[in-house]
Amino acid sequence: MKKFIASVMFALTASVMASGAAMANTGGVPLEKANVNIHDQSSLQVGAKYFANYCMGCHSLNFSRYNRVATDLGLTNEQVAKNLIFTRTDGEPTKVGELMKNGMSQKDSAEWFGAPPPDLSLTGRSRGPDWIYSYLKAFYVDKTRPMGVNNTVFANVGMPHVLWELQGLQEQECTKHGEGEHAVEHCALKTVTPGTMSAAEYDKVVRDITNFLTYVAEPAQLHRKSYGIFVLLFLGLFAVLAYFLKKEYWKDVH
What we know:
The chain has 254 residues and is α+β, with helices and mostly antiparallel strands. The protein has helices spanning 2-25, 41-55, 66-72, 77-83, 106-113, 123-126, 129-136, 164-167, 199-217, 221-250; strands spanning 61-65, 88-89, 92-93, 99-100, 139-141, 149-151, 168-177, 184-194.
């Protein structure tokens, strides 16, 4: 009993620590709900398009292959080769069976950005869809930063706002409520330069990118639940057979 109570307390402590770490990663900023649906194939296709065009110049998906993405997203290899692959391998166009690597060397990217841009294969699991969605909406102009922008979710991030043409430029406006030690500062982002998309259109693009990264982090989740259903049906059928087998075996014993 004591061991059971100790294990429960350990699990609760780990959960609280994990929650605290998540809040620390966002600087205490509440995250918006992404509400993604990895079974929405059209959303995944749009997310893959925008990721390939705006993100893969720096970030790679080293655990994914183009042809696996093509199969899961209902695309042909020809469509993927034409619309998602913009790199070359040993001077030849990258093949659809290869890993989704970008064309930027780690050495050059580390020199340009101070650190090489991370691989995003598992970001959907390590950060979660709410974090990705909120992060992509949280850039604002900050002339003190090398890239000219900062982020309320990831403070002092070294990444430029690659989607600024779509979203536009935002500025952070902070106001204080109260006086002295009881003063509370409230900050909000305000669009100062409109982008080519409306706020609703940009939200959808960001949600689609988030959906795609959530899928990439664990492609098996597309089919995992259906496998579970078949397993439960098999176990149910096996239980019935086992019951009648037990009756047949024990009828002479009793």
